[in-house]
Amino acid sequence: MSRSSIALYNLRGFVILIVVAFHSFLAYLGSQPATRPPFDSPPYPWKAVPIIDAERWYGFDLFCALQYLYVMQFMFLLSGLFVWPSLARKGSGTFVRDRALRLGVPFLLGVYLLMPLAHYPVYRVDAVDPGWSAFWTRWVHLPFWPTGPLWFLWCLLAFDLIAATLYRFAPGAGERLGRLSARADAAPGQYFLMLLAASALAYVPMAVMFKPWDWIQLGPFGFQPSFLPLYLVYFFAGVGIGARGVERGLLAPEGMLARRWRTWLAGAFGGFVLWIIPSTLMFEHMADPSWVLDLLADLGFVLASVSACFALAAVFLRFAVTRSPVFDSLSANAYGIYLIHYVPVIWVQYLLLGVALPAVAKGAAVFTVTLLASWAIVDAMCRLPIGALLMRAERRS
């Protein structure tokens, strides 16, 4: 395995840690309201923050705000890295079939089996009748079908279908995307500016029309319209970076991206400051919003997003190029952990509501229990043929 591949493998394990931590800490944000509306009252804020605990810590707000700026974009970028080589190896038909099995089947099973189980505690918090039958009656009468974090799967599948269509009818598209990143190992700044410009064009106009918390829900298919074009940009950026192999271009192990990791970290910090200051001012004066502050926040978001993605990749290419048994296992099980972690996250947050512990202790407990439980469940599932088939992993001995 090449140095770039090892770094990406370790990075995959690290990203799932960030995702689990993000969802684990949401219940303890200091910026959340004192109480939440009933389960079946619009606009259903529990879709984003299912459980709200009385214990709060603003350190979790800063952590979650930082992850909000880049983590989903980075996941789409990572997901696109091996798409074009896979299309070239399998052909578009086999690729689509494999991706439908890899993403579509777990999405449907997760949405219709796991998500009701995950959200049952949300209903029980203030329910007069906490029984399952009463919950199910309220659940099926909601005007949408909650999907939690599983929306990422159907969205990624849709992007894969777009890539497969391009490969089928414009097979040179991958090569053209690859040329954009081919020289980025020596001049990552030029690629940074290109991705920054594309991100701004994709995000800023949509952010003018939609708020970050706006969702469009069509049955089980939900998405945030303000972010969808931005996710597509990052996905195809990943397709282009990986079209000629991850060892070449932007992610070359000895390239300038890794050498300038401090620069990208500084850019991420600057973008975070540029985003959070006008965002805070607008939050405090929501009755009189300023378009100048809004534009500054949007530009800060784009700058922080691109810089943080570059910084995270650079740090791992620079410092995480050796294999570890722990990260090997975590990375191998990362997809399964993503599929099921939302269930233990919400249940543990719910069970800790009446426990006299500070917010930091509760957040740490939710993260630890969720990670270990999800990890163990996925590892056990992959020892069975059906589990290994759904996870597309080799059956464990």
Descriptive overview:
- It is globular, with a radius of gyration of 21 Å.
- It is mainly α.
- It has a two-stranded antiparallel ribbon.
- Helix 1 packs parallel to helix 14 and helix 3 packs across helix 4.
- Helix content is 69%, strand content 2%.
- The chain has one domain.
- It contains 17 helices and two strands.
What distinguishing features does this structure have?
397 residues, 69% helix, mainly alpha, two-stranded antiparallel sheet, 17 helices, single chain
Total helical elements: 17
Regions with little confidence, pLDDT below 50 for 5+ residues: none
How many domain units?
A: 1
Query: How would you spell out the order of helices and strands?
Result: HHHHHHHHEEHHHHHHHHH
State the end-to-end CA separation. Answer: 23 Å
Shape from CA axes?
globular
Helix content: 55-70%
Sheet having the most strands: 2 strands, antiparallel
Question: Averaged pLDDT, please?
Answer: 91
Biggest β-sheet: strands ordered side by side in the sheet: 1-2
How many beta-strand elements?
2
Strand content: under 5%
> What is the CA-based Rg, rounded?
21 Å
Determine the structural class based on helices, strands and strand pairing: mainly alpha
